[in-house]
Design brief:
TIM Barrel, Non-ribosomal Peptide Synthetase Peptidyl Carrier Protein, Chain A, alpha/beta, 2 domains, 335 residues, globular
Length: 335
């Protein structure tokens, strides 16, 4: 499949997640099968003002390609200028966040607040498409609330203004991340537009991914929270879609190796302060379901030093290797 001129070799994508999809996590997902990855959202206002903190979100490594850098904001002119700045970083795609439900973003008339103003969404897309040569995509939700789910209308407006693909998280802003994703809205969007559609929401197993593709007709499955602490999920979904068979889950030792490697890469790229804070949520999810991990997580959360946290993880890895044979702890995700 292609998004604009960018070829995507697979049916899955890593969703943009604020505070999660930094370089080290994206690398793990890429290594383990994600055909395309999306960055954390970047503030258009911050970029145009020249904020050094904002510029951090623009960094990526060549090995991550194809990669989309995601931009948020509500002012078409500013979004156009910010898109030009992003283009200088030479990503493969520029994505627009029209779905973030966080109050701080919504109060600034960005993210999912724009779902109430489809024509303004169109002006933002047009300003960006006219400013850059890269493909411009958009990520939306299926509406603001139960009474406002104009998916077909929004899709047509975005397409008419030049968007190259649309990803849809099949929940309203009001739903946040609760309730059951409305896959029927993905189908409505796919039927309304001719550009590629990426479905997002409630893909927890490889079987879910296949059902979403078959039930909605979407072109790709975008995976977000299902990949946190579980970058192997891309490998599993890819294999299931290709063969119809489930593959084995990683061993306890492999889980710890990947977690530690991500931690060390985070320290290398962003420094110890950032790593000590950002990795705690990742570690909690990597360790979920591992034997006797409660005390390990408690020790990690109480620690403020990266060296100590990594040492705890290494000693825990050694304990698991000593006490559990590899044949007994590899399990099927779908099972």
């Amino acid at each position: 499949m292609k998004i604009g001129s960018v070829e995507i070799k697979g049916k899955t994508a890593l969703a943009p997640l604020a505070g999660v999809t930094d370089i080290p996590f994206r690398l793990k997902c890429k290594e383990l099968g994600a055909p395309i990855v999306f960055s954390e959202m970047v503030s258009s206002e911050g970029l145009v003002r020249g904020s050094e903190k904002t510029n951090r979100y623009l960094k990526f490594l060549e090995i991550e390609r194809p990669i989309a850098l995601q931009l948020f904001g509500g002012n078409p002119e500013v979004m156009g200028k910010a898109a030009k700045i992003i283009e200088e970083c030479k990503p493969d795609i520029i994505d627009i966040n029209f779905g973030c439900p966080v109050k701080k973003i919504v109060r600034n008339e960005a993210g999912s607040a724009l779902l109430k103003e489809p024509k303004r969404m169109g002006r933002i897309v047009k300003a960006m498409v006219n400013s850059v040569k890269l493909p411009v995509t958009a990520k939306i939700r299926c509406g603001w609330d139960e009474n406002s789910m104009p998916v077909s209308e929004i899709g047509k407006i975005l397409e008419d203004n030049g968007v190259s693909a649309i990803a849809i998280h099949a929940r309203t802003r009001q739903m946040q991340f609760s309730g059951k994703a409305r896959w029927e809205e993905i189908k409505k969007l796919k039927e309304a537009v001719s550009v590629p559609v990426l479905g997002n929401g409630d893909v927890k197993t490889p079987e879910d991914a296949l059902r979403m593709l078959s039930q909605t007709g979407c072109d790709m499955v975008m995976i977000g929270r299902g990949a946190m602490g579980n970058p192997w999920f891309f490998r599993e979904v890819n294999s299931f879609l290709e063969t119809g068979e489930s593959i084995r889950r990683p061993s306890f030792s492999e889980v710890l190796e990947v977690c530690i490697d991500q931690f060390e890469k985070t320290v290398e790229l962003y420094g110890k302060g950032y790593a000590a804070n950002s990795m705690k949520k990742h570690i909690a999810l990597y360790l979920k379901g591992l034997p006797e991990s409660s005390n390990i997580k408690m020790s990690i959360f109480q620690s403020r030093e990266c060296e100590q946290m990594i040492d705890i993880l290494n000693r825990y890895k050694e304990d698991l290797e000593y006490n559990f044979s590899s044949d007994n702890h590899i399990i099927s995700k779908a099972g």
